[in-house]
Amino acid sequence: MAETRLSYKARRRWSLVILLIGLPAYIVAAVSLVAWLPELPGWVEFFVYVILGFAWMVPLKFVFLGIGQADPDAPHPEDDPR
């Protein structure tokens, strides 16, 4: 199976789209899901929110890895052969 890796710039763009559009949509969906459930005790509802709060990160972890670091594909100034 061929592995498709996103470039650093593509991961930065996708992380921005996910954070600005996907995460608010996920929050609305999570709150709607909890509201749709039958009345739960407060502590159970808290744990449902905690689980849902971490659940979005698991499938998207690869997009956010290394985003805060310098571009690994960019040329380094000390590599200049002058």
From TrEMBL:
For this protein, the parts annotated as crossing the membrane are: 14-37, 43-64
Taxonomically, the superkingdom here is: Bacteria
InterPro entries linked to this entry? DUF2842
- Establish whether keyword Transmembrane is in the entry: yes
What keywords are annotated for this sequence in UniProt?
Membrane, Transmembrane, Transmembrane helix
Q: What is this protein called?
A: DUF2842 domain-containing protein
Give the originating organism.
Roseovarius aquimarinus
